[in-house]
């Protein structure tokens, strides 16, 4: 957009060529009769400066400015050297104001404004050159004046765009794009040019007062229209940017909710998300009996918050500030998404609890079939979990460790498989719908590896043995030995094999227990 408005830097050669062309174009300076030269200079100065500084661009790249109307008017009615000088200064200063307004870099402001000034001056002279031979005859007839004014404005637009395109020429493939841009750029000046028609008609052979009134009225009307067009486009761009921002936030919101594990975590994340996205004073999110407020410790003021509630009971309360902008439709989408995730999390937690109950029932059967005491695998899982806690492994690894400990009696079966639970049940889909996490299967399969590399099934040693396997080896041996000897004797037996069969670090953690008897009870 900025490149279209101001262009890139102009080389010295290009600038010199444009200046030569400007000087080469022969212009007959002519002041219409009945026209006050200084009043015309002031009126055109104001109109030129304002329409240039307030110009805007459509999102598809063409300018919305009524500036060419004044070029066409000057070319049709004629102008003096003083007025041309005013035109040059107005074009330069107007573009400086515009480039500053849109945030152009300081290094580009003067070069791009100078380039624009030279191009528009050249197009003004070329337009005047085409019209000046017929000017006297045209102004004698109202209809010819109207047609010529519209034609001169359209010609000025086309020359402006064409000259800018020539200075940025990159190949003939650009011609269709340049042509479309030229046509689109003529829409607004061509439509509103008639507001200067009365002044153009009255510029010859009429009293000065009538002409001045018509010119002032036309300039003021064009300024008002330019202001309205720019405000509408700026508002449309703001709405478009806001929509894109909310769509991006909606995508982020979906990503955040996808990675959550619990309802508590979902509410906490949602409160922080809305606090950052909407920039309110505070946000409170409630779900059933749980509520989170961001920032923490916020003391609600006496005024009521903005509140949105979902169909399933999710409540969002927002205390807005002057920066807070809320889109009702997207707020409802956010709430619907979050409620869906919360219901899925609750369902997953319910399934998870049911799964553990089924797992414990299956483990109970394994304990009985192995002639162990009732609850043997549960005791191994409790000790293994305590070791994992003291070794500060992650929550996910701790969960895998507990599951592996509950199922560690399947080690002999998994030793024969190719490290995949599917190999145990190769052809029965109904049994393979439930899959253990890979780390759980690996942990069970390698729990009979020895620390010195003499174990089975793969002869792994040291740190190459999965941590879950090393913990399971110590925990299961300790519980098994404690069933036929004292706890002290079981610890002594494990200590003797530390570094040979067992990981010394895991053994050290086991020896740090102060309540081993309680874990075995």
Outline the structure in words.
The protein has 24 helices and 6 strands. Helix 3 (37-53) packs parallel to helix 5 and helix 6 (106-131) crosses helix 8. It starts with a helix and ends with a helix. Mean pLDDT is 75; it is low at 1-8 and 418-434. The protein has a 4-stranded antiparallel β-sheet with strand order 4-3-6-5, with helices on one face. The longest helix has 51 residues, at 208-258. The protein folds into 3 domains: 2-233, no CATH class; 241-344, no CATH class; 370-520, Hypothetical protein af1432, CATH 1.10.3210. By secondary structure, it is mostly helical. A hairpin with a 2-residue loop joins strand 3 and strand 4 (290-294).
Separate helix tally: 24
**Strand neighbour order, sheet with most strands:** 4-3-6-5
Shape label: elongated
The rounded distance between the terminal residues' Cα atoms is: 76 Å
Mean pLDDT: 75
Report the biggest beta sheet as strand number plus sense, adding barrel if it closes: 4 strands, antiparallel
What count of structural domains? 3
Find the count of extended strands (DSSP E, 2+ residues).
6
Radius of gyration: 41 Å
Low-confidence stretches: 1-8, 418-434
Helix proportion: 55-70%
In terms of DSSP E residues, the strand content is under 5%
Structural class: mainly alpha
Q: What descriptive keywords fit this protein?
A:
Hypothetical protein af1432; two-stranded antiparallel ribbon; disordered N terminus; 3 domains; 4-stranded antiparallel beta sheet; 24 helices; 66% helix; elongated; mainly alpha; 521 residues; single chain
């Amino acid at each position: 957009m900025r490149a279209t408005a101001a262009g890139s830097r102009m080389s010295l050669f290009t600038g010199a060529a444009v200046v030569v062309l400007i000087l080469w174009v022969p212009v007959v300076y002519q002041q219409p009769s009945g026209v006050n030269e200084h009043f015309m200079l002031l009126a055109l100065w104001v109109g030129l400066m304002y329409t240039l500084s307030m110009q805007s661009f459509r999102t598809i790249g063409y300018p919305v400015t009524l500036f060419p109307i004044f070029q066409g008017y000057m070319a049709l009615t004629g102008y003096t050297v003083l007025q041309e000088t005013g035109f040059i200064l107005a074009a330069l200063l107007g573009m400086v104001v515009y480039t500053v307004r849109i945030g152009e870099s300081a290094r580009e402001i003067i070069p791009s404004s100078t380039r624009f000034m030279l191009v528009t001056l050249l197009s003004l002279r070329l337009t005047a050159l085409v019209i000046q031979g017929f000017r006297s005859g045209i102004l004698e007839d109202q209809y010819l004046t109207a047609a010529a004014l519209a034609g001169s404005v359209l010609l000025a637009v086309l020359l402006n765009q064409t000259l800018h395109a020539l200075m940025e020429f990159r190949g003939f493939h650009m011609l269709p794009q340049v042509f479309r841009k030229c046509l689109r750029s003529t829409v607004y000046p061509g439509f509103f040019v008639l507001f200067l028609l009365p002044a153009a008609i009255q510029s010859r052979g009429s009293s000065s007062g009538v002409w001045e009134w018509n010119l002032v009225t036309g300039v003021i009307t064009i300024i008002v229209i330019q202001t309205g067009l720019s405000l509408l486009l700026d508002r449309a761009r703001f709405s478009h940017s806001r929509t894109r921002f909310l769509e991006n936030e909606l995508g982020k919101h979906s990503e955040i909710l996808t990675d959550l594990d619990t309802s508590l975590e979902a509410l906490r994340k949602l409160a922080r998300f809305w606090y950052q996205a909407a920039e309110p004073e505070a946000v409170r999110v409630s779900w059933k009996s749980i509520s989170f407020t961001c920032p923490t410790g916020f003391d609600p003021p006496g005024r009521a918050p903005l509140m949105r509630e979902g169909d399933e009971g999710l409540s969002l309360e927002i205390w807005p500030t002057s920066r807070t902008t809320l889109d009702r439709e997207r707020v409802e989408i956010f709430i619907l998404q979050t409620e869906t995730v919360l219901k899925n999390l609750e369902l997953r937690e319910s399934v998870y609890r049911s799964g553990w109950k089924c797992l414990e029932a299956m483990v109970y059967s394994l304990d009985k079939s192995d002639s162990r005491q009732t609850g043997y695998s549960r005791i191994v899982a409790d000790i293994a979990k305590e070791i994992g806690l003291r070794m500060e492994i992650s929550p996910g690894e701790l969960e895998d460790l507990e599951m592996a400990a509950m199922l560690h009696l399947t080690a002999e079966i998994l030793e024969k498989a190719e490290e995949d639970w599917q190999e145990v049940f190769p052809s029965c889909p109904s049994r393979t719908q439930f899959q253990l996490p890979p780390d759980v299967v690996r942990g069970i399969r390698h729990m009979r590896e020895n620390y010195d590399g003499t174990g089975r099934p793969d002869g792994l040693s040291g740190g190459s043995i999965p941590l879950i396997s090393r913990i399971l080896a110590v925990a299961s041996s300790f519980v098994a030995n404690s069933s036929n000897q004292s706890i002290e004797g079981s610890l002594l037996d494990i200590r003797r094999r530390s570094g040979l069969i067992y990981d010394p670090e895991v053994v050290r953690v086991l020896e740090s227990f102060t309540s081993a008897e309680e874990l075995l009870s």
